[in-house]
């Protein structure tokens, strides 16, 4: 009786097997990198850890990559959801950096914001309660607001709409969102898009895709950031 030879493995199955083997070989290297990044995040002041972690994920494009995840970092995720209720004491170094940004005009005191936007203190409180504006802790009972809330070159109503879409993220994380380039925005920052800038032509984008980037795109990015 003749014996039939076992069927040869399909090319597709062979490729899948090779891919699995490659992943198995690179997994230890990925784990080492992730642990090193987590250690780096833990080395900065607690109040800045979420900020640094978000920046690393954005720079390394980890948000949508299911194979590379940074380990949960100590303190990063148990920070108060709202910077207004921040319970962890910030370092004097952090306060000093923020005061320097006030001197540069990138952050505003409550009094400066009220004067520049021409609203009452009660109106400011109402916007805070509605989630359409945010601040970062300046220490010494000071609240510092991003200057873009008073930027006449921007559609400030759109800025407040995007702020609301960011939900309960800490103020520092909201600030980072507005000022960090995002791939979904053609490597522009949300503030760039809200200011009317358009991304340069890039390979890999469908015809007209970059031209359609606008407020709706920023709002979708904000909603995704709030849910991350």
Characterization of this structure:
It is a single chain. Helix content is 50%, strand content 5%. By secondary structure, the chain is mainly α. Helix 1 (11-42) runs antiparallel to helix 2 (46-60) and helix 6 packs parallel to helix 9 (215-227). Residues 1-27 are annotated as: Disordered. Residues 8-21 have a biased composition (Low complexity).
Count of strand segments: 3
- Number of individual domains: 2
Enumerate the strands of the largest sheet in spatial order, edge to edge or round the barrel: 1-3-2
Q: Please compute the radius of gyration using only Cα atoms.
A: 23 Å
What integer is the average pLDDT? 75
Helices and strands: which structural class? mainly alpha
State the helical fraction. Answer: 40-55%
Please, how many helices? 9
Q: Give a quick account of the main beta sheet: strands, pairing sense, barrel closure.
A: 3 strands, antiparallel
Shape verdict? globular
- Low-confidence runs: 23-27, 43-47, 63-87
Order of helices and strands: HHHEHHEEHHHH
| Head-to-tail CA distance between termini | 63 Å
Approximate strand percentage: 5-15%
Region (Disordered): 1-27
Biased composition (Low complexity): 8-21
Question: Can you give keywords for this protein?
Answer:
mainly alpha, 3-stranded antiparallel sheet, 50% helix, 5% strand, globular
What is the gist of this entry?
The protein has 228 residues and is mostly helical. It has helices spanning 11-42, 46-60, 92-104, 110-117, 121-130, 156-165, 171-179, 190-194, 215-227, and strands spanning 107-109, 136-139, 142-146. α1 (11-42) packs antiparallel against α2 (46-60) and α6 (156-165) packs parallel to α9.
